Amino acid sequence: MSYSKYSVLMSVYYKEKAEFLRASMDSICAQTIPASDFVLVCDGLLNDELDTVIESFQDRLGDILQVVSLRENVGLGNALNVGLRYCKNEIVVRMDSDDISFAERCERQLEVFRNRPEISICSSTVLEFRNSTSELVGERRLPERHEAICVFSRKRNPFNHPAVMFRKTAVEAAGGYKETFHLFEDYYLWIRMLMNGCVGYNIQSPLLYMRVPLDMYMRRGGKTYAKDMLRFHKWMKKSGWSMNSEYITGALPHAVICVLPNWMRKIVYEVLH
Questions:
Q1: Domain assignments of the chain as residue spans, ordered by start
Q2: E strands along 64-104, which residues?
Q3: Does the chain have fewer CB atoms within 10 Å around its N or its C terminus?
């Protein structure tokens, strides 16, 4: 197979800022190995500002850009499943509508797939930023090799979703994204892929700037989030992927963090990252 062709998979919804979408798509257009296919899922009706940005990239990219418009907002996981069906290539790179990829990102990841054909999913370290890429607030570095990734996955998400590149057939074989556990659709997919025998790899150098909004700590907290997180970890334990000890030392402390006041949870996340 060709390791120079890949599809980009992105979803956008009405709350996204037009300037963030433009910067994100610009970073994909600036890749050292250009994408031959770009699938953009509009998750429900957008607004005039976002529509204007998308129209400008339709003029710029022509047939490379496939815009898939959904009548109603269906959530990230469901929107990505729809978009995945439109991806023309086996290798798919995920891109969020407010992040910024390094110019060499896709080239570096394609090199991993070319040199190690057993790999099904590859991510990288990401740099977290607020308003601009010069305002860094953190770094998310995850285990590099497959064995360490599997061990880590029993307690925490083993891949940075915004920086992931994967094989389309491997994702489909695992059942695609599922909304079974709210806000855990990516983590849930990775575990099912690993259980299927997929091999993962994390590039240790940063290849993406990930935007971290001020309300991120609010979205990753609260009783509802904690309950969904515990349900997910119980599923991993029941499925035989994790053990009681990992549930006690991983899931339960995380649940406690989730119900902390927002200001305190913000401090904890910053220390952990």
A1: 7-213, 219-272
A2: 65-70, 91-94, 100-101
A3: N
Q: Residue type at 267? A: I
Q: Contact 254/269 with Cβ under 8 angstroms?
A: no
CA–centroid distance for 58 within its chain: 24
Distance CA 148, CA 71 (A): 42
Angle (CA) 107 148 271, round 5°: 85
Q: Are 41 and 68 in contact (CB under 8 A)?
A: yes
C-alpha 241/C-alpha 251 separation (Å) is 14
Average pLDDT of each block of 10 consecutive residues along the chain (273 residues)? 88 98 98 98 98 98 98 97 98 98 98 97 96 92 98 97 98 96 95 98 98 72 88 96 94 85 71 62
Architecture of domain 7-213: Alpha-Beta Complex (3.90)
Fill in the amino acid letter for 22: R
Give Cα 168 distance to the centre of its chain. 14
Structure tokens given for 144: 């590099």
